Amino acid sequence: MKILDIATRPFAGQRPGTSGLRKKVDVFQQPHYLENFVQSLFDILPDRAGQTLVLGGDGRFHNRVAIQTILRMAAANGIGKVLVGRGGLLSTPAVSAVIRKRGAYGGIILSASHNPGGPDGDFGIKYNIGNGGPAPEKVTEAIYARTQAIDSYRIAGDTPDIDIDRLGAGSLGDMQVEVIDPVADYAELMQQLFDFETMRAWFAAGHRMRYDAMCAVGGPYARAIFEGMLGAPAGTVVNGEPREDFGGHHPDPNPAHATELIAAMSGPAAPDFGAASDGDADRNMILGRDFVVTPSDSLAVLAANATLVPGYKAGLAGIARSMPTSCAADAVAKALGIACFETPTGWKFFGNLLDAGRATLCGEESYGTGSSHVREKDGLWAILFWLNLQAATGLSVEALVRRHWAGFGRHYYSRHDWEGIATERADALMAALRDKLPGLSGREFPSPDGATLRIGSADDFAYTDPVDGSVSTRQGVRLLFEGGSRVVFRLSGTGTEGATLRVYLERFEADASRHDQPTQQALAALIAAAEAVAGIRAHTGKQAPTVIT
Ligand code: VG1
Ligand code: CO
pTM for this structure? Predict the structure, then answer.
């Protein structure tokens, strides 16, 4: 086996964002680009020799090519064994589950998550560590630093492609390659957590569900679990075949992009339960008939009812949510007498809390929910949790949420995304906001119900990890209003075109007679206050948000 040393300076050189390195496919197709990132990763793993890695992706365009390259590089870098998902497929939560179950050293996931795929779409790569979770900042920073300095990489030359479509063991030089069933370990874990009998009975009694895989990697998992193990009728899973371009879908499970599912869930003939997941199946959207659940509410409802599910019947150690996620979960934690942690955006910040046993459930407003069963957010897991709750209580999705609001109050919530802003303009907006921070507390805004909306305090969120003490600053500008309303501004770290400004809006309403307002109307005064403070239109030159969820 020949080791090629390429002497040209490669150029990954891009700071990994919220979740790994994400770029347009043609950027990844440049000579040495992927190789630079992968060699930089191997270089910062000094004890990699002989170790086992897990490798798979969401099946998007370039997945198969990248897998062969990574296998050759792993062999040349002394990796002992690679477990590859058949067809190159593994969802993000499945990688996490496989790493943990098999005691692997780490894993490489090929995905740009909910970003569109295909030759003109996006590609991405992320590294997970031995606990099954995303590499923490010190690891991603080390990879980045290494990409700036390396001038060669190691790759096994002259080897035929590994057949990744057939299960079983093989080798590449001295390295073992085992092609594994992408679903088996994951499905087994789900059976340990949820009451499959009760859920089977729910389907047998005639209840109906529609799960939209959006032509992404969730399909094979959903087919095996819902239609296979739980006896849901064939056709419960739609768009279930993973496609390289996601069938032209934007595999982002939210009301703006999953329009087909929203339509199918409306009207008296709609199924009882609707759900979708994203490109790499770590996100989830939950729907009832004519009813959409916000991700922040979803986390709170799961937490409040967790003991109905076998895997959580002993109760929760704590809850963790990302800072922009609504405070609905905090209300549940308070009632349960457990801690609620507030972390920066990105799943990697939950890892230490989960490892230390201080949090059991975690969630983000961006359609991400998960628990201590793996170290990633987990789309199918969240959907099974909701299914288990419906089957155990006999209540519909809407009834579960309404009962929750009646008990805990309602946190109206929305996120406004302003996409495709010129980077300098977005940076200028954030810089201006940060400059204004000291003068913001006490500022008042009109509110339609006559009560004045008043900023109690404003800051730029900083987080000190309660487990290892590491500090992350500049995680989003927060306007904290008296009475609990909040507006948060931050720039996306996952986009590939210009900048995206995310504006997160939240208002608490205790009064049950006021739980039926349209969300945007309930948040109108806050939306106006956000514009008044940040001058979004003037800064961006845009008139309206691109996506409202
Ligand atoms: C977005 C979400 C964040 C999520 C991240 C990765 O990041 O807001 O909550 O953790 O995507 O999710 P950003 O920086 O664009 O706001 V995934 O499904 O893309 O791995
Ligand atoms: Co994702």
Answer: 0.95
